[in-house]
Amino acid sequence: MNEPIPVIRETDCGTARLLPDVDRDRAWLLTVDGAPQSYVDLDEPEHLEFEYVRRLGHVVDRAGAPGAPLDVVHLGGGALTLPRYVAATRPGSRQDVAEADRGLVELVGEHLPLPAGAGVTVHGTDARGWLEKAAEGSADLLIADVFGGARVPAHLTSVEYARAAARVLRADGVYAANLADSAPFAFLRSQLANLAEVFDELALIAEPAVLRGRRFGNAVLLASRAPLDITPLTRLCAADAFPARVEHGASLARLIGGAKPVRDNEAVASPEPPDGAFGIG
Length: 281
Hints:
InterPro entries: SAM-dependent_MTases_sf. By secondary structure, the chain is α/β, with parallel strands linked by helices. The chain is 29% helix and 27% strand.
């Protein structure tokens, strides 16, 4: 049997690489311009390698009734790690993925195909453009993990974007977004302020070292118009190999402070990561 070899291809947004994991059969790391984007184990889609993706997995696990199918929208596709996870853990779910890099969509479809009957439809289109045309109240869960290279595009960082996301969610639906920042958290605080303008309930999941300002890192933002089930989520995140805290209520209000919502005409992309923060050597 031949050993898998790396696949390198120029796509719409940069140089994509699919790198086989020598320790796991049929497992692959996707990078774009050196920044890790996705990790997929084709034989074990329930395996979530990246810490922040495991946190998003906890959000998936706590959405709706355990194991029941969900209607899920994914903004940003990468190698479709979370759509595969939802399909495996919640059979019968209906999922839409908006991924702007059509070359990447073709690469993943060719080398890491979805299993038959996965219930996942991939759209090669801009995330916000697709969101604004989607049916109102059509999703139980909306997961945003959109990076142009290593930065969230500016048109996905405004309060108008947050309103578009809320429109697509059902009354008890949950919005979950991955972003990255470091102290003094100007970008993170502005994104929380955007969500606070639109949703009634907010929470944030991040490692203590990131929250204390010791390093640049990922944070998962949660928002809903219905109460969030914080206690079990806190327990799950604390039990991970790299434990994370869940900020909610008064502690999150203190973090937001005096930050104001950001309008489309003043929105900017997320901060550039420091050298080596997420890169593959």
